[in-house]
Amino acid sequence: MNIPLLRFDGFDESWTNKRLVDITKVNQGLQIPISERFLEPGDNRYFYITNEFLKKNSKYEYYIETPSDSVICTKEDILMTRTGNTGMVVTGVSGAFHNNFFKIKYNEKIVQKNFLELFLKHPKTQNAISKSAGQSTIPDLNHKDFYKLEIKLPSILEQEKLGSFFMLLNQKIEKQQEKIEKMEEFKKGMMQKVFSQNLRFKDEDGRQFPEWEVKKMMELGSFFRGTGLSKADLILEGRPCVLYGQLYTTYGSVINKVFSYCSPDIKSFIGQVNDVLIPSSGETAWDIACASALNIDSVALGGDLNVFRPNKGIEGNFISYQINSMKKHELSKLAQGASVVHLYSNSLKKIKLSIPSYKEQKKIANYFLNIELKIEKENEKLKILERQKKGFMQLMFI
Fold first, then answer.
1. Per-residue DSSP letters for 77-140?
2. 297, 316 Cβ separation under 8 angstroms
3. Which top CATH class is 213-355?
4. Which CATH superfamily is domain 16-153 in?
5. Residue 136 class from Cβ within 10 Å (0-12 exposed, 13-18 middle, 19+ buried)?
6. pTM above 0.90?
7. How far apart are CA 310 and CA 291, in angstroms?
8. Parallel, antiparallel, or unpaired for β 254-255 and 292-294?
9. 240 — alpha (psi -120 to 50), left (phi > 0) or beta?
10. What's residue 79's pLDDT?
11. What is the SS3 assignment for 303?
């Protein structure tokens, strides 16, 4: 029977099977070349909803003039990407939409908007969309394959209950995400103030610390290189290890825990507390322009890692925060290569850093570490909310 494992009180009827062709109608948007788009709103101009709109913190907004009614949407409509990142659902926006999108009209007597949106975002639906779109360089979902998708529907009243319940969950998740974003922005702003020396810390007696000195990294410590580790070298338990790809996907300025392990018998370069790790290769220069300080000992360091070991009196956490406070292009422009970019230690050695006294280094590093720990706690709360939503989706949908 079409009955979910968890339901609201008062609902016991089986859900009915429908195909999207029975309850929806889709149409594609309009493809307008960049030369015919406008960067400012104006008379008879509509906001142009493109893939650029989906990028977080996008700086570009396009407008087009007098589009046909068929490619205009309101905030109540549901859009879904049909090419590229196929299956992304967009709602709450008005304008004219690009050819990469479907606008999904639906029979309001049969399906409620929030419920349809939940169905489209459900992992099972997303998997079905992904398979139908194909595995080519640019996946493409056509009308026919969209209409083949099957949906199981409860009564409109139960749909509304489910839609409201998950809308509240989504609002909690969005508020938590906003809180984390604000904390990240605060940290970023404080890093700019501290490392530009517009904001200075004071010692225990309230006195100013000594002036900072500008030094090249080669004067502050020694450089080493990690040792290559293959997938076959990785095991579930053993010596903790850090792989280069994890630096720009998993870690921030400080490494307090690891996610990979290798055999203690494998010969590899062993990192120690206070080492600073910088990727030496990656897909883009932007990715590898980052640094992480080791706060744990006896860690095997994988290949494609630059290892900076500070001299006595130099705080690794401070160095990593200062490097990460630099404008990304300042570090990324040192990278070399095309399909794979490299950041060599010879280039890093020439980077100039402003270095305060050791006590001020520690004070600055601890200040930002405390901020990051608070952000980490809020990220854990976000993960709990996301797990809760995923669990309810599995129990309350068929």
1. SEEEE-BSSTT-EEES--EEE-TTEEEEEE-TTT--HHHHHHHHHSHHHHHHHHHHH-SSSS-B
2. no
3. alpha beta
4. DNA methylase specificity domains (3.90.220.20)
5. exposed
6. no
7. 13
8. parallel
9. beta
10. 96
11. coil
What whole-number distance in Å separates Cα of residue 387 and Cα of residue 373? 21
In angstroms, rounded to a whole number, what is the distance separating the alpha carbons of residues 277 and 230? Answer: 19
Q: What's the average pLDDT block by block, 10 residues per block, for the chain (398 residues)?
A: 91 95 94 91 92 77 92 93 91 93 94 95 92 79 93 96 95 96 95 93 90 96 91 89 86 90 89 94 80 94 93 96 83 78 89 95 96 95 96 92
Contacts of 349 (CB under 8 A, 6+ apart): 216, 217, 218, 223
- Looking only at Cα atoms, what is the longest distance across the chain? 76
Q: Where are the domains of the chain?
A: 16-153, 160-199+357-398, 213-355
123 in Cβ contact with 47 (< 8 Å): no
- DSSP H helical segments within the chain, as ranges? 20-23, 51-54, 113-121, 123-133, 143-148, 156-195, 217-220, 244-247, 285-288, 316-325, 328-332, 345-348, 358-396
| DSSP letter, residue 196 | T
At residue 59, the pLDDT reads: 72
Residues 6+ apart with CB under 8 A from 158: 7, 8, 11
Sign of CA dihedral 345, 350, 353, 359: positive
pLDDT at 51: 85
Joined together, the tokens standing for residue 205 give 């007696």
Both tokens of residue 371? 């901020």
Residue 314, pLDDT score: 97
